[in-house]
Amino acid sequence: MQTKSSRLVILTRDFRSYHKYLGLVLAILLCISAITGVLLALKKEFAVLQTPTQKGSTKDLSEWMDMASLVDIATEALAKAHPDETGLSIDRVDVRPSHGVAKVIFKEHWWEVQVDGKTGEVKAISKRTSDWIEALHDGSIVSDGFKLVSMNVVGWGLLFMTLSGIWLWYGPRLIRQRKRSR
User: How far apart are alpha carbons 172 and 164 in whole angstroms?
Assistant: First the structure.
């Protein structure tokens, strides 16, 4: 018959094994998440991560061209600057009245075109490196399904690692205490 101490020893060994192997998998995901998280925190500090928002000619929205025209100008400008990037669909239009520009952001290839809201002048055409980093950060670069699974693995895995780590610290103390009290 097993004693309480021997059951605790077996449980601690099992937790150590689970903790070690899950820790290896989580370490990879956490390193990627940590590095990309730092880069995302710094994205506004470095133009290579995110193109600075350009200045347009007016902040008054009543003087702006209609949104469809701004989108058409951005689409044509991207096709002209990068002929291999035609037929891209638009993800969103980020309107920045405080800067006088609209950022037309495309779904594929992380392109952004900044257009002056009043004149329609193209202010910048650039890749949104920060969007690529964000997709890597949350796992959506692979797929939305992978994002869902990987973020749940990380979350539940961290919870398990925390609890098993506490046990790996407390368990041997409890075993020694029980052995001393015999």
Answer: 12
